[in-house]
Design brief:
- The chain is mainly α.
- The protein is flat.
- It has a domain at 5-43: Histone, subunit A, CATH 1.10.20.
- The protein starts with a helix and ends in an 18-residue tail after the last helix.
- It is 36% helix and 0% strand.
- The protein has 3 helices and no strands.
């Protein structure tokens, strides 16, 4: 597959990116290298190989949901450094 400026500009438009002329040239070269690397995978014999869904054979250890006792509202707020009647008080982070 050949990557040209038109292809890069179309991808940039779809991804809402902006490149100047120098960056576009660099992207053409980089995308060409990436595609040539991926095309080498076509040379590998994959006959009889099942596709992978993950790279790990680990299985999630799931548990059943159980209703357990929980903390009361007062217990939760008991050790809060700053609180009002019902909520934690935290420093303002947005102007």
């Amino acid at each position: 597959m050949k990557v040209d400026k038109e292809t890069i500009n179309k991808i940039a438009h779809l991804a809402r990116l902006e490149f100047d002329e120098a960056e576009t040239e660099k992207m053409v070269a980089d995308m060409g290298k990436i595609i040539s690397f991926v095309e080498k995978l076509n040379e590998v014999n994959t006959e009889g190989i099942e596709p992978l869904t993950t790279m790990s054979h680990e299985v999630n250890a799931l548990r059943e949901d159980e209703v357990k006792p929980h903390l009361t509202h007062e217990e939760v707020l008991q050790n809060a450094p700053r609180k009002d009647a019902d909520f934690f008080r935290v420093p303002k982070v947005l102007e």
